[in-house]
Write the structure tokens for this entry.
Amino acid sequence: MEEKKIITIAVPKGRLQEQIAEYLAVRGVTIKEESRKLDYYDEKNGYRFLFVKNSDVPVYVNYGVADLGFSGSDVVYEGDFEFLHLARLPFGGTKICVAGYEKDRPLFEQNGLERNFIKPIKIATKFTRFTNHYFEERGIPVQIIKLTGSVELAPILGLAHFIVDLVETGSTLRENNLAVIEEIGRTHVKLIANPSLYRQNYRKIDDFVSKLQG
Ligand code: PRP
């Protein structure tokens, strides 16, 4: 099959977008961001960048709308699609934590020890697959409540005892009088590829990966 002249790369909007753009800029690839425009075509290199919601990057790559995508490992794991993992970037990694009110810490700790005597703790999170897997492996019964943002509100409003969420600077937790109860994972930013599109365009994709690692 003839190789395409253009590859499409999904980039998450928000805080990672800027870091990715800076990282690529020093490697000779420019992503021009016009305030509301959702794509950018780099004609010289033959790259089309799509700016999409973070959690949608794996969807665009899985359905072949994008050949490649930059995505947090947390988001990739939640999607449960099959990808090639082409590169791991040296920035954007963060912690995944159980967080809640400090006063509720014993509830979390006892639940592991005396789980036969108490009801499951309720945990609100965007990362239901990760959270389910984490607690299932440890034999700790939990009730998971799926939210898609502003998860910190859940313990405040009594929807859940704890949250499982990303903690970067910790300021969202602090400003809401919440604390890290336990760090349960780490995320990193990776470049994923659609496996069949990679087979069709591997030369151009490998060239992009070398630029990225240069
Ligand atoms: C993430 C995360 C926390 C916050 C943590 O949310 O879900 O809310 O960042 O960062 P901090 O420790 O530096 O305060 P994000 O800003 O990505 O928005 P979202 O909740 O809408 O996904």
About this structure: Helices lie at 15-25, 57-62, 73-79, 105-113, 128-137, 153-157, 171-175, 195-213. Residues 149-151, 165-172 surround PRP (CB under 6 Å).
